[in-house]
Design brief:
Elements: H1 2-11, H2 16-28, H3 31-35, H4 37-71, H5 81-89, H6 91-123, H7 129-146, H8 148-170, H9 193-200, H10 208-211, H11 220-249, H12 252-257, H13 261-265, H14 269-300, H15 322-338, H16 345-369, H17 382-399, H18 401-421, H19 430-443, E1 459-462, H20 470-480, E2 486-493, H21 502-515, E3 521-527, H22 530-540, E4 550-554, H23 562-574, E5 578-583, E6 595-599, H24 606-618, E7 627-634, H25 637-654, E8 659-664, H26 670-677, E9 683-687, H27 697-707, E10 714-718, H28 725-728
Parallel strand pairs: 1-2, 1-4, 2-3, 4-5, 6-7, 6-9, 7-8, 9-10
Antiparallel strand pairs: 5-10
Length: 730
């Protein structure tokens, strides 16, 4: 019994000929071949037509190569082009292309059915086009709901009708005495080459019809490349032979004037009408089979909202997506009833071409990055995929530039919507591979010696628990302001936390920062104590030349920790890391963030770095209203006059917009002046002495804290990096 079920399931799948070749070829040999190809030959002549066919098919062939590469890399499931794109470029890009692709295919059903109805009523005027369209939709919809196999068998009949029409044309007769028109009608009476190219190109874009049947194929990895190449090849041969027949039997002017010229020169004109009807019906059928499967795949991957989950439902041994098919039939019934899709038709073509371009990009980037997971059986050089993508983009603008822009806007809006939904996917994407390649390229080219003009802070924040010392992260985020890197680091006790828990702590901190809309790197390290861990982190953290140049940390309030804390600061300085110590007395924070005081002793080292930090803060959204006051203390009025002259020259060249204030001590203590002047400021920046020159640094640091105890939140700045910070300001 189990064997019989397996056999039935096997027979419910489609092979290369029925599942890919037939629907693709029938879409390629469509209404443009019957109704517009004579017009193409008449306008540009035999040579121009052969060139247009060759260029068009070349783009389609290059896209087929890319499809073959992606399709043979991994098992292909339902969803066709959407599946191939999303599994390589990620859910957001896949969905941004997949949703418009579904809509394009759904509305294409309406376009083909309306075209069939209009051509039928032209022969039988008693028929009403609208009711013919509705009846045709219901008939094709019933076939699609009843059986995929039966629908494909109907396409075999249509393929036979098209073959009959081509044979009738081949054995036909000349309409008049004519010679082969090499160049078409005179230039003054014809349409330009690229306009004709734009009209013809959609005729060869039917390759996606077979790809969209991926979920119904016995062996998608084998059938998609083989069937697609066969369809492109047969279509190319036919389109290269037809211009010779047309140009040798009818003059150029007649070809331009008569849309159904093939009927007049065929052996049996009725066969051409059957071919036209067959072409429109086959194209409609192919889209009616493909569109629901794309919709089903979008629902399966939860790209669509949760209410659309019923589109995942399948019925019967052929697993027909009945709910998605019924929805597509409903769209078609509504659109054919109103009957005019001319406004959106160009945009639909753009959606198809965008899909082809993205498929080329997918294959090209995967091949170029040489990702270990990309091992297609059918290998294509990335240059061919790039040419295919460029060809698709060029054709899009040639056909309709406004429709192209509109299509890009729609795709962009959908991408942003999906990005904000933060879809959790279980498959990888190219994003990480692309970023890794860019990072590798940049890292290997970073200069060993940092030029002052290109300096930016790369800050390592020793935050401990982010929730307890949030001020450190907040200040760093404002300094970097999305323009520089910073890392939030935590040192855990080796005795309390096992190594296997480190990743869990990192994930928790990442989630915490993400909820706060802070974009930072995270590093958690185990060590015997925080000071040893911080020293180890500064020694080892970084990649190549991309290492932190600045360490930002909080103060220590326990006397027992003062000595190891001071040794840690000394180690940071010797390691050529700038040091920023944030001291927040009584957890006052930054209050209104409106006044920043810089106590300045000159332009070199600490003075320049403090100016730079204040300027970076002022450029952030949180501190943009702040007033920056640069304050300098001199002994008397004579010194004040000389200092003012120097500062005028210095500050005019800085271009920071900061003002300065010169304070005369007149015998008063510097620290008393500082405490009085900055008592109401929101942030005070003070230079920190070099540890090596102060002997016992902990004694100096303890005294510094006592002298500034009355001040609000203050930042001690120590410039240690071998960078001429004054040149950053000029």
């Amino acid at each position: 019994m189990a064997g019989r079920e397996t056999k039935q399931r096997k027979y419910s799948k489609l092979g290369t000929f029925g599942g890919v070749f037939t629907p693709s070829l029938l879409t390629i040999l469509g209404v443009i071949m019957y109704l517009r190809f004579g017009w193409v030959v008449g306008n540009v002549g035999l040579i121009g037509t052969l060139l247009i066919v060759t260029l068009s098919t070349s783009i389609t062939f290059l896209t087929s190569l890319s499809i073959a590469a992606v399709a043979t890399n991994a098992p292909v499931k339902g969803g066709g082009a959407y599946f191939l794109i999303s599994r390589s470029l990620g859910a957001e890009i896949g969905g941004a292309v997949g949703i418009p692709l579904y809509l394009a295919q759904a509305f294409s059903v309406s376009l083909y059915i309306i075209g069939f109805s209009e051509s039928l009523t032209a022969v039988f005027p008693v028929l009403e086009p609208r009711w013919v369209s509705l009846a045709t939709t219901l008939l094709l919809g019933f076939l699609a709901l009843f059986s995929t196999q039966a629908t494909i068998k109907v396409q075999y009949i249509i393929l036979g009708l098209i073959a009959l029409s081509l044979l009738s044309l081949f054995f036909g007769r000349p309409l008049e005495d004519s010679h082969i028109e090499l160049w078409g009608v005179p230039a003054s009476q014809s349409v330009s080459f690229w306009q004709v190219f734009a009209i013809f190109f959609p005729a060869v874009t039917g390759i996606m019809t077979g790809v969209n049947m991926s979920g119904d194929l016995k062996d998608p990895a084998k059938s998609i490349p083989k069937g697609t190449f066969m369809a492109v090849g047969v279509g190319f041969v036919i389109y290269m032979i037809l211009p010779i027949i047309l140009a040798s039997r009818v003059d150029a002017a007649t070809l331009v004037a008569e849309p159904l010229i093939m009927e007049q020169i065929a052996l049996w004109g009725g066969a051409i009408l059957l071919g036209v009807w067959g072409a429109t019906l086959s194209s409609a059928t192919g889209s009616l089979l493909g569109a629901p499967r794309v919709l089903q795949a979008l629902a399966n991957d939860k790209i669509l909202p949760s209410w659309a989950g019923f589109f995942t439902q399948v019925t019967g041994k052929e697993k027909i997506p009945r709910a998605a098919t019924l929805f597509t039939i409903g769209i078609t019934l509504v659109t054919v009833y109103f009957g005019n899709l001319n406004l959106i038709a160009p945009i639909l073509t753009m959606f198809f071409l965008t899909t082809y371009a993205v498929l080329n990009v997918t294959a090209g980037v995967e091949t170029f990055l040489k990702s270990p997971s990309f091992r297609p059986k059918f290998k294509v050089h990335w240059v061919f995929s790039l040419l295919g993508a460029l060809g698709c983009a060029a054709v899009m603008f040639l056909i309709n530039s406004l429709a192209t822009i509109a299509a890009f806007l729609v795709i962009g809006i959908i991408f942003i919507w999906l990005k904000r939904r933060k879809i959790r996917r279980t498959w990888g994407g190219l994003g990480s591979g692309i970023l890794s390649s860019i990072i590798r390229y940049a890292l290997l080219r970073l200069e060993k010696e940092v030029d002052a003009k290109s300096w930016r802070p790369n800050i390592l924040v020793l935050s401990g628990s982010p929730t307890k010392r949030w001020r450190l992260i907040e200040l760093t985020n404002d300094i970097t302001n999305g323009n520089s890197l910073f890392t939030v680091s935590t040192i855990l006790s080796e005795s309390n936390v096992p190594q296997e828990k480190v990743k869990d702590y990192e994930s928790q901190i990442m989630d915490f920062l993400a909820n706060k809309n802070v974009h930072a790197l995270v590093r958690v390290l185990r060590a015997p104590d925080p000071f040893t861990g911080a020293t180890q982190l500064v020694n080892a953290y970084g990649l190549g030349q991309l290492v932190p140049n600045t360490v930002l940390l909080g103060d220590t309030k326990e006397n027992a920790h003062l000595k190891p804390y001071s040794e840690m600061i000394r180690h940071f300085y010797k390691s050529r890391k700038n040091v920023i110590i944030v001291q927040d007395e009584n957890n006052k924070g930054f209050r209104k963030k409106q006044v920043i005081d810089i106590w300045w002793g000159g332009l070199k080292k600490n003075g320049s770095l403090m100016i730079i930090l204040a300027y970076l803060l002022k450029n952030s959204r949180e501190w943009q209203q702040a007033q920056v006051n640069v304050k300098m203390v001199v002994p008397n009025s004579e010194a004040s006059a000389g200092a003012r002259k120097n500062l005028d020259a210095i500050f005019s060249g800085m271009r920071t917009g900061f003002g300065y204030q010169i304070l005369e001590s007149q015998g008063r203590d510097f620290w008393d002046i500082l405490s009085e002047e900055s008592a109401k400021s929101d942030l005070v920046l003070i230079g920190l002495a070099v540890p090596e020159l102060e002997g016992e640094f902990e004694v100096y640091y303890t005294a510094l804290k006592e002298k500034t105890q009355a001040l609000p939140t203050k930042v001690f700045v120590l410039a240690a990096q071998e960078v001429e910070f004054d040149k950053v300001l000029h």
